[in-house]
Amino acid sequence: MGPVGTAAVRDGGAALPSGFWAAVRVWLEKPQVANRRLCGAAIEAEGTVLLGESEEGSPRLTAVPGRGTDEGPEGAAELSRLWREVTRHLPPSLTARGRPGSELRAVLRTLLPRARPAGPPAPPTKELVVQDVYNGTVTFLPLEENKEGKYQIKKCNTYEIQLMHIKDEEWSLSIVALSSEDWFSDGITYPKLAWLGNELLPKLAKWSVEQKHSEFRSTLSLISVAKYCKVYQDLKEKYKEMVKVWPEVTDPEKFVYEDVAIATYLLILWEEERKEKGLAKKQSFVDLGCGNGLLVHILSSEGHSGRGIDLRRRKIWDMYGPETHLEELSIMPGDSHLFPDTDWLIGNHSDELTPWIPVIAARSSYSCSYFVLPCCFFDFHGKYSRKQSKKTQYREYLDFVAQVGSVCGFHVEEDCLRIPSTKRVCLIGKNRTYPPTECALIDDQITRYIHNRQTCPVVACDRGVGFNHKDCSDVCKEAGSGLPENEMETSGRIWMPGFQPREKVEQIRNCAALPRDFVDDVVLNVANLLLNTVPQKSCSNTHGGNMNTWNQGESLSLREVAEHLNKETLKRLKSEYGGLQTLLKNNHQVFEVLNGRVHIRDWRKEKPSRKTKPEVKRCLSAEAYKTRLCWFFIHHPNGCALPSESCPYAHGTEELRQSKTIKKKKHTQC
């Protein structure tokens, strides 16, 4: 036995032990957050066991459905067998602290390695983890398979995490190797001892005192993590060539691998649904707002019949072939856009259609389900308006979309996807909360709910996801039940006449299309505001021996700057994404915007280009040199802070070089 590392932890008394066990749980369920060479872990079974339990004893163990491997109840049986077998051979450090009959917590998990760039993937590794809550220890016992195909304790690579109370608010967190002499490391599932002490230990100490409560579900909480890792690696290998031939202006790696991950999730979700319901045929689907269509292509290639609909055709559509069905069409929520023969509706970043997808699914057929991955915040009739300040806007919007699903009679489930995006929470409506005989009542409830969203905002229920049908009825009643007769009659055609789908040609709203004279006027006004605000900052200009002071002006918050602009200017800027801040950042020659404050840019403080700068970027910088007039040379009361030979901009028209057009990729949502 040998200590690997020790960390002192200080926190508010009794709060730390609970934080420690929460940190241990993170390491058990999501080891990839500490060890990037792992894809994740599958908890197959866990439960209470008794120290020194005899052969006749029966541990209280349960399998963990949906999150382990395919073993199901066999996982619990395997853990029970393992515990009875190893109870006589547990490490002395574990048996010495407890008396026979002491309760412990046993967890059987499988560590899932990521695919290696070359060579066959590393095999999964099983561990038996024993938690002694009373003594504050967690023991990790690696398992190996014997000739009979059964698992037994491996003699090496056993380690223990220990929490010890020193005094008052002082605690000690340590990792001890119980078999350090014959420690084996493969750099993946079996890390080096130094990694345990230098990497894992600090993370555990940090997690223990953070006491952060996540407002979202654990990643991949509704499906098997082990199966997900395997299918994802297979699909990633199968569709990796798409990255090389991607014709869109969007980032190919992000969009290809994100759609591969979403497809993986849906394929596993649908496979488990077929097992639950005894279905033989693979589910059909329609992807509303399918964008580049890659998700449709993957799902279709994997045997699911379906199609994608989007109001704008993409270049890449022509590359998929005839088996991938994509339609250029604008969806107007109404009876003309129902899908009675479709099993699943998909809304992957579906923007203004997002809240309508549960409605369309509910009215398409009783057996139609849906999957939505909300991104931009839209209500039924336009942009979503916040109602609560206690939640983040994202959390509040997710609750709204979940509420829509519940009003539509779905039991709404929430999960977190493993994708390279900040908006990775999906909502799933798979099962109904009402019998088929109540379809007309639910349809009427939906109509009233949508009407009330227009006339008076509905107060969102603050009880998370999946509140029941009765709660939703109460919500509708509280919002008002009156609905004009003529609207009840026309609701069978277009459900909301004022609904506005996106324009087919997306407008550029990043301030780049604003008239040049308007932009120049705003820039000059803001610069004069900063330069004339007292007290003024000045800085000696030592270039060329000139010791004159150069006015740097003051810094002001964006709000303070906005207060000095006229209403017409602000109104025009508000129609652009990012508004005033985007315009000022676009004019980076003049301004620097840091932490919400606006400064006059001082080019003497700009760092020179590094020699290690990529060749392409150096070429672009050289081509842009002296192709634009220096704003400071023309407008600043002290002129430019740099001499002509040092300034990248032209000091007068005689220095101007002819501009060579540099095409820039516009990274828009695809």
- CATH topology-level fold name of the largest domain: Rossmann fold
CATH class of the largest domain: Alpha Beta
Identify the overall geometry: globular
Structural class: alpha+beta
Query: Which CATH architecture of the largest domain?
Result: 3-Layer(aba) Sandwich
Number of strands: 21
The largest pleated sheet is described as: 9 strands, antiparallel
Number of domains: 3
Strand content: 15-25%
Q: What is the overall pLDDT average?
A: 80
**Count of helical stretches:** 20
Function: Adenosyl-L-methionine (AdoMet)-dependent tRNA (uracil-O(2)-)-methyltransferase. Probable adenosyl-L-methionine (AdoMet)-dependent tRNA (uracil-O(2)-)-methyltransferase.
EC number: 2.1.1.211
GO molecular function: tRNA(Ser) (uridine(44)-2'-O-)-methyltransferase activity; zinc ion binding
Family: Belongs to the TRM44 family.
Structure notes:
It is a single chain. The protein is an alpha+beta fold. The chain folds into 3 domains: 2-209, no CATH class; 225-453, Rossmann fold, CATH 3.40.50; 516-531 and 552-606 and 615-655, no CATH class. The protein contains 20 helices and 21 strands. Strands 1, 2, 3, 4, 5, 6, 7, 8 and 9 form a 9-stranded antiparallel beta sheet that branches. Strand 10, helix 8 (294-301) and strand 11 form a beta-alpha-beta unit. The longest helix has 26 residues, at 252-277. The protein is globular. Residues 53-59, 61-71, 457-470, 484-491, 542-547, 610-620 and 662-670 have low confidence and may be disordered.
